[in-house]
Design brief:
Blueprint lengths: L1 E7 L2 E8 L2 E4 L10 H7 L12 E2 L6 E2 L8 E5 L3 H6 L9 E4 L5 E3 L12 E2 L2 E7 L5 E8 L2 E2 H5 L5 H4 L5 E9 L9 E6 L2 E7 L7 H8 L10 E3 L23 E6 L3 E6 L2
Parallel strand pairs: 6-16, 8-13
Antiparallel strand pairs: 1-2, 1-5, 1-13, 2-3, 3-4, 6-7, 9-12, 10-11, 10-16, 11-13, 14-15, 14-17, 17-18
């Protein structure tokens, strides 16, 4: 199944993507009203029978795929080719950092930039957790990064948590229905292909990440994990070829089986 969140009366609401349109799940008695509530219940079966009310996607304002989570975790340096391009050794364990809730943004949302600094894109597969350490769904994410702030210290938080620098969307797909054996992942900037890889280049795959985290930072329903970015980020380009993101740029992140997350910078 494929889901999205949209704003209804100013609050995120759960939509089920169907051929007829977007079903407002929470408008039906007893159904979850948000993606977080669905992650807690983990029960997709009742949603299969829903047929109304149907909304049209073009009439909706997207919200981040999931909201109200306790944790936004990220894995750094988790693609082999990316580690090679920036000249770093393969990690022995997942490198974990976090984004703060102010970094959340939605599909089609304009994202404001601080001025005059090195801003980079990072296309990522994002996991959405269910109860008990089970991966419930996955979505597209962009781990936008301010490289000067990230490199200023050994801790990356300040370079990763600017307002809107963690967009997710447009859809979440239940994890079990996604193709197995690796997903294609791409990033385009103003239509130009910048990243083009597959998740089977991950150093630590989705389940390995979860297994590593659970004893250390117990995961709860709705928590998200940005699983890392492939090669092709500006950080890895030679100095004379770097094209940092700027106001007016449009960044698109595509993950096979999920969709394309699009954001314009302002």
């Amino acid at each position: 199944m494929k889901f999205l969140q949209f704003y209804k009366d100013g609050q995120p609401a759960l939509g089920l993507v169907t051929e007829a349109g977007i079903i407002d799940v929470g408008a039906n008695p007893g159904m979850p009203k948000t993606m977080l509530e669905l992650c807690v219940s983990g029960d997709l079966a009742p949603l299969a029978a829903l047929t109304s009310p149907v909304l049209q996607e073009q009439d909706l304002t997207f919200a981040p795929t999931v909201t109200g989570m306790e944790k936004i975790l990220c894995v750094g340096l988790n693609y082999r080719a990316h580690a090679i391009e920036i000249g770093m050794a393969m990690p022995e364990n997942p490198t974990i950092f976090c984004k703060l809730p102010n970094a959340l943004a939605a599909h089609n949302e304009e994202i404001g930039l601080p001025c005059g600094i090195e801003i980079d894109y990072e296309a990522e597969l994002v996991l959405i957790m269910g109860e008990g350490g089970k991966i419930f769904a996955a979505t597209c994410g962009n781990d936008l990064s301010i490289r000067e702030w990230q490199k200023a210290t050994t801790q990356w938080l300040c370079g990763k948590s600017y307002d809107g620098f963690g967009p997710m969307g447009p859809y979440a797909v239940d994890y079990e229905s996604l193709p197995k054996g690796g997903l294609a992942i791409q990033c385009h900037v103003n239509g130009e292909l910048r990243q083009n890889s597959r998740t089977d280049d991950l150093i630590f795959d989705e389940q390995q990440i979860v297994d590593y985290l659970m004893p250390r930072i117990p995961l709860k329903a709705g928590d998200v994990i940005f699983t890392g970015t492939p090669s092709g980020v500006m950080m890895g380009y030679p100095a004379d070829r770097k094209q940092w993101l700027k106001s007016g740029d449009t960044v698109e992140v595509t993950v096979e089986g999920i969709g394309t997350l699009r954001n314009t910078l302002k």
